[in-house]
């Protein structure tokens, strides 16, 4: 600041001090001279503050999101003007009608959208929960023991890329019923991300932490509860998040094939009834539920992520 | 001099993919109870390897290590280790990190109340009673290292092993922690083996400085007795003739006798 001020106040450059040729006096002293500084210089004029603040970041982001949604609805309205698709307004009207009574029951094949969503979520929860119960311990074991990891590698590599729906006939064959077959498909597709991510997490546990365990001579139980589990938890939650995403994708397709109650079946049923605006509503609902599940797990993962420290 | 920690003709050869690498050769050293010994040498001279052998994190390929007349067969809580990078568990508070060690050593014989008191005392010893409930990411690097020291000391180990404990800290924090460590060791009478590459740190803290030759097949090149009176005061030491002499001796060893090959 002072440099700028002086250059402004004295436009005429000061004459340069003549160069000294003699040694600086401090060089003659045995001890280096330390010049003590007095109190810090008094505050000068307050720095010029910007008078116009840019809008806060969240506002800019919210604005961009609103524009994106508006463009989307406009495109939809444009496409629907050709007559095939229901317009946004018509869809909204249908949605209001549907959501005014989401929990009605008119026999097994005609139920409110609320029941359909809850049924699908229930299937996902069961299949997914079973996958967590099996996949997470398996992942720990595969991550901890080299032999098991090598053993499991070819099987996982072979089965992971298979579309979960390919398993549906096997499910129908074994369980002889649609509902358990759908749950079983969810189980299969949630299993792989959970095993793989947990195993990777176990392998990524920093050697430092394991050295701590070794020098303290901790028991296996303490190593698991105090070191392995907390260190692996963020990886495990990533696996859980990927799994639930896949599970929600797959349940819609599985239910289209199995029938009964469920959001996927509902989509197919409305197609047979040629109620296209209901299909559009279902698409939004599926998207919203998937988004909510994802955000819920992101929130949980944040809660359990630890800074590794510097 | 009583022999508390005995390192006898220890050699260490690593074998990696058929390539043999002799890190340490014929190392013999005894450390008395209550003694502060530093291992100094250029990087790669195997001083950390030697410390790991004492910690039990590795087994020597030759020779034997004894602590209080018992062979060191593996890691154990009778040797408190302070790691260079603090190695605190980030999901535990400072108190919980220390408590993990306390519980392991005294959990079978003492009540919960006594264990908590030990944890508290250890944190107070390093001046961190106020940070007990903080997580490692909330405190500075120097404070983390102090928690690491508290964790090691709380186990009341027979010997405290420190692997360049202040190496990752800035110079001022390092000096501060060295002063604190001197105070702590004076209070507890701990036996300490410390690895360092800082000449001043070695001279200031040690009773003896063990200077190691360059690897491979590193061994002990010279041992310097630092017969300076304790407690040592950093500023007074800066002009103390014996301090300067010791410092010069270590520097001469490191930069003349064991000149490092151009890196």
Explain what this protein looks like in three dimensions:
The complex is a heterodimer of chains A (310) and B (263). With 310 residues, chain A is mainly alpha-helical. Helices cover 70% and strands 0% of the residues of chain A. By secondary structure, chain B is of the alpha/beta class. Helix content of chain B is 37%, strand content 24%. In chain B, strand 7 (159-163), helix 5 and strand 8 form a beta-alpha-beta unit. The longest helix of chain B has 18 residues, at 171-188. The chains are: A mainly alpha (310), B alpha/beta (263). At the A-B interface, helix 9 and helix 10 of A face strand 6 and helix 2 of B.
Strand and helix layout:
The complex is a heterodimer of chains A (310) and B (263).
Chain A: H1 2-9, H2 25-28, H3 57-80, H4 88-100, H5 113-144, H6 146-159, H7 168-175, H8 178-203, H9 207-216, H10 220-258, H11 263-272, H12 276-303
Helix pairs in contact in A: 4-12, 5-6, 5-8, 5-10, 5-11, 7-8, 8-10, 10-11, 10-12, 11-12
Chain B: E1 5-16, E2 19-31, E3 36-40, H1 47-55, E4 62-67, E5 70-71, E6 79-82, H2 94-106, H3 112-125, H4 141-154, E7 159-163, H5 171-188, E8 192-196, H6 199-205, E9 208-212, E10 220-225, H7 234-239, H8 241-257
Parallel strand pairs in B: 3-8, 3-9, 6-7, 7-8
Antiparallel strand pairs in B: 1-2, 1-4, 4-5, 9-10
Helix pairs in contact in B: 2-3, 2-4, 3-4, 6-8
Task: List the keywords.
heterodimer; A: mainly alpha; MetI-like fold; 12 helices; 0% strand; flat; B: 263 residues; alpha/beta; six-stranded mixed β-sheet; four-stranded antiparallel β-sheet; globular
How would you briefly describe this protein structure?
The complex is a heterodimer of chains A (310) and B (263). Chain A is an all-alpha fold and 310 residues long.
């Amino acid at each position: 600041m002072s440099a700028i001020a002086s250059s402004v106040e004295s436009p005429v450059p000061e004459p340069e001090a003549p160069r000294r040729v003699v040694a600086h006096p401090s060089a003659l002293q045995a001890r280096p001279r330390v010049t003590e500084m007095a109190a810090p210089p008094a505050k000068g004029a307050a720095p010029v503050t910007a008078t116009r603040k840019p809008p806060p970041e969240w506002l800019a982001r919210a604005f961009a999101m609103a524009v994106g949604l508006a463009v989307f609805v406009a495109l939809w309205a444009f496409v629907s003007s050709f007559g095939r698709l229901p317009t946004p307004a018509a869809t909204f009207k249908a949605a209001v009608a549907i959501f005014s009574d989401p929990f009605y029951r008119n026999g097994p094949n005609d139920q409110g959208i609320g029941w359909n969503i809850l049924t699908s979520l229930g299937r996902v929860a069961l299949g997914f929960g079973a996958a967590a119960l099996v996949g997470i311990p398996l992942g720990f074991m595969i991550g901890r023991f080299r032999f098991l990891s090598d053993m499991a590698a070819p099987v996982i590599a072979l089965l992971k890329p298979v579309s979960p729906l390919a398993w549906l006939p096997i499910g129908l064959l074994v369980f002889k019923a649609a509902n358990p077959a759908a749950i079983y498909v969810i189980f299969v597709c949630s299993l792989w991300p959970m095993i793989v991510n947990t195993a990777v997490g176990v392998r990524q546990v920093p050697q430092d932490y394991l050295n701590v365990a070794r020098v303290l001579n901790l028991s296996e139980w303490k190593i698991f509860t105090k070191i392995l589990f907390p260190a692996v938890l963020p990886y495990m939650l990533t696996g859980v998040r990927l799994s639930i995403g896949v599970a929600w994708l797959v349940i819609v397709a599985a239910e289209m094939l199995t029938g009964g109650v469920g959001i996927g079946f509902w989509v197919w049923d409305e197609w047979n009834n040629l109620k296209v605006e209901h299909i559009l509503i279902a698409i939004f609902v599926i998207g919203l539920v998937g988004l909510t599940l994802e955000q819920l797990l992101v929130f949980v993962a944040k809660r359990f992520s630890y800074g590794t420290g510097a | 001099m009583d022999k508390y920690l005995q390192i006898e003709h220890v050699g260490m050869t690593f074998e990696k993919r058929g390539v043999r690498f002799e890190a340490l050769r014929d190392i013999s050293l005894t450390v008395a109870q209550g003694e502060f010994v530093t291992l100094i040498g250029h990087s790669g001279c195997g001083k950390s390897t030697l410390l790991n052998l004492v910690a039990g994190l590795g087994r020597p390929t030759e020779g034997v290590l004894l602590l209080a007349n018992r062979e060191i067969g593996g890691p154990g809580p009778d040797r408190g280790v302070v790691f260079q990078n603090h190695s605190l568990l980030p999901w535990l508070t400072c108190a919980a990190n220390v408590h993990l060690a306390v519980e392991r050593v005294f959990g079978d014989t003492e009540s919960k109340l006594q264990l908590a008191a030990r944890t508290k005392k250890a944190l107070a010893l390093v001046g961190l009673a106020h940070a007990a409930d903080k997580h490692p990411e909330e405190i500075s690097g120097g404070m983390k290292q102090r928690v690491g020291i508290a964790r090691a000391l709380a186990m009341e180990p027979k010997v405290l092993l420190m692997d360049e404990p202040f190496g990752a800290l800035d110079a001022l924090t390092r000096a501060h922690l060295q002063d604190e460590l001197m105070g702590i060791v004076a209070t507890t009478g701990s036996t300490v083996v410390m690895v360092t590459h800082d000449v001043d740190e070695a001279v200031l803290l040690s009773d003896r400085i063990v200077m190691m030759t360059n690897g491979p097949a590193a061994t002990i090149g010279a041992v310097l007795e630092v017969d300076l009176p304790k407690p040592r005061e950093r500023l007074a030491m800066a002009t103390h003739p014996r301090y300067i002499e010791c410092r010069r001796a270590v520097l001469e060893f490191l930069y003349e006798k064991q000149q490092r090959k151009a890196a």
